[in-house]
Structure formats: C-alpha cells, structure tokens
TrEMBL record:
Keywords: DNA-binding, Transcription, Transcription regulation. Residues 19-79 form the HTH tetR-type domain. GO terms for molecular function: DNA-binding transcription factor activity; transcription cis-regulatory region binding. Residues 42-61 bind DNA. InterPro entries: Homeodomain-like_sf (IPR009057), HTH-type_TetR-like_transc_reg (IPR050109), HTH_TetR (IPR001647), Tet_transcr_reg_TetR-rel_C_sf (IPR036271). The keyword DNA-binding applies. Pfam families: TetR_N (PF00440). The lineage of its organism: Bacteria, Bacillati, Actinomycetota, Actinomycetes, Micromonosporales. This is TetR family transcriptional regulator. Coiled coil: none annotated.
C-alpha cells in the first residue's frame, strides 16, 4: 500500500525540507526492502512512493547501496533512542536481562522492521552484498555490548552473549513466520528464564 502516485502517474512536486524528504525516502525504502529484499528493491518504486524522479532520489541518497546504508543506520539510531527511553539509562549502562527485555518489547512492536533486518541479514551472508560489511561489524558490536552487559554475572560473558543473540534471532524468525500464533515477548521470557535463571 503506497501513499505515492501510481507508476506512470503524475509525481508530487511539493518541496519538502531536505530532512523531511530523506525521512520519507527511508520509510519507503524500509517498507520495500522488508517486502522484497535488497535485490528486489527498485529505485523507481522508491522514487514513485516519494513523488520523485529516480535522478531526484539519487540526489538524496547517492546510490542504491547508499540508500540501503541510510536505512540501516536510521534503524540503529531509532533503536538506540527508543531503548534509552524505555530503560531510563543509556543501553550500555543496563543489565543484560533488562536490556534484552527492552529490545524484545521494541521489536515486538515493529514486525516490519524486524522482517527487514532478518531478510537483509540472510541476504548479506554473501560477501558481495552491499550490507555484508555492515552486518559483520554489527554482529561484533552487538556481541560486545551483550558481553559487557553480562560482565560479572557469569563466568563467560562472551559465550552467554552468543547464546542470547542466537536465541533472540531464532525466536524472531519463529514469530515472523507465524505472528498470529506466537507472542515474541512471551517466548523471550521463557527463554530468558532458561538462559539467566529465575533470579538472574
């Protein structure tokens, strides 16, 4: 469901401020990548959704790869702000269990964004994918953050971080495949009891 004009129709010519235009481009691209993956993304469709020509779209994002990076970086920034608001402290100051619970609650409220990341994470296993390096670096960053949050709570924070990340990713796939059947937050709470113990 698009809010832009149909392909071949008259494009919107309103002049939006650059920041607002970029937000609209990122929102349109996010929805399309979540639906089709990066390789199925058409710059023409993004342009149509935003009331732009393809050259006008490229003026804002530089390239298809640049658009993908903008989408990923925007999502990371939004997640950071949301987590800090939910936790009441910067995410790096939260305990592991609290951090994970807040992240799962956020993800449960935005299935389209979780789907986007799941699709791109799988696609980017190919070394020539434009987001390959991003996801390699992101995995390392997330594992380090989880291990830091687990410091002092267990004998091997790095091992626990890997288990937590794998569990969260796996539960999200189960949930995304059948969201009407599964409750992501409830599944995580069950997993957290097994991972952290009743009193952790």
């Amino acid at each position: 469901m698009r809010d832009g004009p149909a392909r071949g129709g008259r494009r919107e010519r309103s002049r939006l401020p650059a920041a607002q235009r970029r937000e609209r481009i990122i929102a349109a691209a996010t929805a399309l990548v979540a639906e089709r993956g990066f390789w199925g993304l058409s710059m023409q469709d993004v342009a149509d959704d935003c009331g732009l020509t393809v050259p006008g779209l490229l003026h804002h994002v530089g390239s298809k790869d640049g658009l993908l990076v903008a989408v990923l970086e925007h999502r990371d920034a939004e997640d950071g702000r949301s987590l800090e608001a939910a936790l009441g402290v910067p995410p790096e100051e939260a305990g592991l269990r609290e951090l994970c619970a807040a992240l799962v609650r956020r993800n449960a409220a935005q299935p389209e964004i979780v789907r986007l990341f799941a699709v791109l994470a799988a696609e980017s296993l190919a070394p020539d994918h434009p987001a390959h390096d991003y996801f390699v670096a992101r995995q390392r960053t997330v594992l380090d953050a989880l291990a830091d949050a687990a410091e002092g709570a267990c004998a091997d924070p790095e091992a626990l971080a890997r288990l937590v990340m794998a569990t969260m990713d796996g539960l999200q796939l189960v949930w995304l495949r059948d969201p009407g059947t599964y409750d992501l937050v409830a599944m995580w709470e069950e997993a957290a009891a097994a991972l952290f113990g009743a009193s952790a």
